[in-house]
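Researcher: Batch entry, complex prediction.
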Amino acid sequence: MSQTAPVARDEFFESLLGDFLDESGQLLDSLNDHLLQLDEWVRSLAEDHRERCDDHLLNQMFRSAHSLKGLSAMLGLTDINTLTHRVENVFDAARKNQLVITGSVVELMFQAVDRLVSLVGALKDPEAEPVECESIIGQIAQLLQASGAERHQSSQADAERALREIQIESAAAEPHPSTSEPASPPPAAGPPVDAPDAPDLFAGIRDEGEAPSKYLSIFIDETEMALDQLADMFVSVEGGGSRHDIEQALIISHRIKGSAASVGQNRAAKLAHLMEDLIQNVASAGCGLSAGVTDAMLQCTDHLRQYVEGLKKGNPAEYDFNRPARALLAAMPSAAVQTAPPAAGPSAAASAVSRPASCSPGKATVPDELRRRLAASVPLGSDALIGAVTFRPRLDLVGLKARLLFEKLSGVGDVFHFDPPAETLDTIDDLTGIRFAVATDKQAEAVAPILRVAGVQDVLVEPLVGEEAPPEASPVPSPGAAAALNKVSSRRLAGPPAAAEESRDAGRTAENAAKPAETLRVEIERLDQLMNLAGQLVISQARFAQLGEGLRSLVGDKQAAQSIKNVLASLGTMAESKRRSSDVHGLQVELAELRAQARRVHRELEPIGREVESLARAHAAVNELGEAIHQLGRVTDAFQQTVMDTRMVPIGPLFARFKRVIRDITRGNGKSIRLVIHGEKTELDKRMIDELSDPLIHMVRNAADHGIESPEDRQAAGKPPEGTVTLNAFHRGNSILIQVNDDGRGLDPESILRKALEKGLVSDGDAERLSRSQIFQLIWEPGLSTAQRVTEVSGRGMGMDIVKSKIEGLNGTVELDSEPGRGTTLSIKLPLTLAILPSLMVEIDRDVFAMPLESVAEIVGIRRADTTTVHGQWTARVRGRVVSVVRLDRVFTWAHAALREDQSESDELTLVIVGESGQEIGLAVDRVVGEQDVVIKSMAENYRNVPGIAGASILGDGRVSLILDVPALIAMASQVRAAASP
Amino acid sequence: MSTVTHAETATQENRRTEAMETMQLVSFRLAQEEYGIEITKVQEIILMGEITRVPQTPAYIKGLINLRSTVIPIVDLRLRFGLAREETTDETRIMVVNVCGKTIGIIVDAVSEVLRIAQDQIAPPPPTVAGLGHEYLTGLVKLENRLLILLDIDRIMSQEETAQAEAAAAAAV
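Model: Structure tokens for the complex:
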């Protein structure tokens, strides 16, 4: 089977695909989560399967599968669609009691979900292996057949109905059950237009209050986008529209429906569903998008937009969708009349105003629900009027007329409702009327005449009062409108309490619901680029700071001082000559000389004066520059921090994935393991989370598979039969620690050593000298696995070295600590972000290198006399430990000579100790420059990677400095050692 | 070349043919020889600055420089062609060129001029050119009173792997 996409893979499809990947990921996550719950439930039952499973759970899973099915169908992803359809069938059968949920059913569903995950994964990676799902589909079919639950529930409409049943069931507490629920696409007969006694189309449907705010914000984000597209489209195709347009409208409506349903916004989903129906009918009727349809759809988008606005502000659900829904039903094309509700009857006086398709005689009315809704928004402490105006049919420049009315009303008071929205009026050229609400202390009778301008057919104005005091129908100028109003108010009094109760209910949940954060979907590449720019800014700022310093030292007053010295000297000569001569002639000569001297002094002093003056100004300027650079520094820091923050995501979802891993393992090996998760809110760089997934899976598998003993063994060892694997994430200083801990048997040093000897990883002689922690370090060597028997999940002996290199690839380190009989802890230490590396800057032979601070254990100064040579290996004693001293020029091959001229060996030696305990080396450096956050620049971008070098960075003075790859350096050093020793 | 529409006038046609047959070169000097690189490959020409040496690389890789916050490698073309090492002079320049999607700098003795030559001025390279591998040459350009060696700059870096292996072998000895 292949993924066939009837929708061309164009830009639009790509954008949809992005949404799909996002949404499907969430749906599959929730399916997995629910399956885990179901699994637990099944197991708790043991033998007795009679007990009824949690309906809520099954319904939720059914809904997830259904949403996924809809989404995949929309994109033409047949494989995903077929499989989700099957999964949906299973849950449907289960909740109808046609299928008994057993362990094997859950297992099958797990497999199906896995397959779906792979299918979705294959979408991201076009080169991925094709995913086979025929067999699983076959298995599900068999299952359904065996239980007799296989029904011909294959049409979309059937499933839709099934979905609606859930909604009705979940609203079973409603005093008015599904009486008014018109099934659609083929809606049951029923008064569709908003005649005063029209039933609430949404009576049976309630929103779920528990939608997580994260998903809700995604929904808001997406729906807004979809509404924009939809509105744009309808505005541009007004009255026409190609097949492509209609298809697009269908897709977008479906998408809104899907995402609304997935966050439990069932009423919005229902409206979107009706929108979809309408477009579907239009499409099958073959007529274009008539003005009526376009209008109704636009009205719906407006309403949905307002509703989403409300959600954004944290007060959702109060929204009444009846009006747009009726507009939709009324706009059904005549070809669909049999299935669509009958066209507007005479009681349709109160039909939606901006619906020219309905042929109401143009009486001005205000529908009840609008009144109710607006009553809630009357500005505090003021009276308000509500009203409607209808225009003569086919009135020219009707938009302008409406605008005029709006202006007039604005003169009366504060217009807080105007339909259609005032800002759209200029573009409207077909309008039957307007509705408005205005906060004013004027009487209705006074306002009505103002609105009676040329072209206006009917005017209705009445006071608007709050809900608790239902208004008496006020006298209105038009008798026709009054009649309609009477009906309205009579309906009000007899109105079903259900609706009111519902909206109150919804209001309550709305209060509880946290206000969702507004989100914006951004391509990660853009964030990378932003990060890169932030890095450049950091470098530039450092450069500026250095230049500023240089300038400050330059603005000394050397020249001025020299000139002043000259002046003093000539003055000195003058003074001397004065004393020597005594005769008159001599005096005259001396006087002339004196004048000449004085002139010279003056000439000399003039430029000095100017220079000193400008120096003073320069001083002030340099100080200001310093200020500015300092300010730039602060902004740069904040900017970099903010950019970094935008890339941070909590590790929780990654941790949650391991629930499933643990479950699979316990199923496989009969162990009983509890997964404890701490610190799920700890945030990491998005890229880092992606990279961490594989190594963590290895670690968790190892812990669960090899670490934790069988229940019998555990009890024998005096431990509780249930083992515990703990995942923890927390900040420590400038890094993040992630720990995987188990309370199992711990590592056996003897067995590791034996394995290492077998594989020739250590020599016999070395083996004797190794400390316990040194032995544990062997676990990272390629090809070492301590499992006695290789199991399905782990033990192929290619885990740990890959884990280590992956983590080192993230500039992190990983350490292992284990105590026999007590358990094992693996600690991953990672820098806060990938792009910026806190480093120790060192100078070796005039080259400045950056060493990840992460890998530096300590810096020690020792005297050369304290070093010795052991087996031809230069070593030093550092606090009782023996550390081999490594000189960079012995490890690296340099083609170009160092800039350093003299090789004078000072007696003092500075060693930077790096590496895990037991394998530490002391890198001899000439000078420690200091700590600095450096921006990592890839060398492979324009050249290639170089062994021993992790990358390059740019120093404050614009020079390039190399970042040492410490693990590689240690490995290279040991190679050199091995080559040196005989 | 895109197709020429009939609407185009004869003069335009002529100009076009002319453009097709000429190319622009940046010429530079290296050990008394004059070379040319297609101008489209050359990004900019900069002065020599401080170059950070890089270990485990062949000698002709002088090191890395910072070109407006991008780190690029610098190739000493003399060493690349096995010519004698020369001290940096006032005329020494780094030509920043784009090869195979990467940006690198090459050190040349001096940058001379930008030339426009006709295609028919290019002759195939002779079997041997003094002191430098045949493989980097695409041809010789005959100018009025001198010869210009047309350089295939893309091969400068693509030969890296073999050179690197040689360097590694040399280091192991």
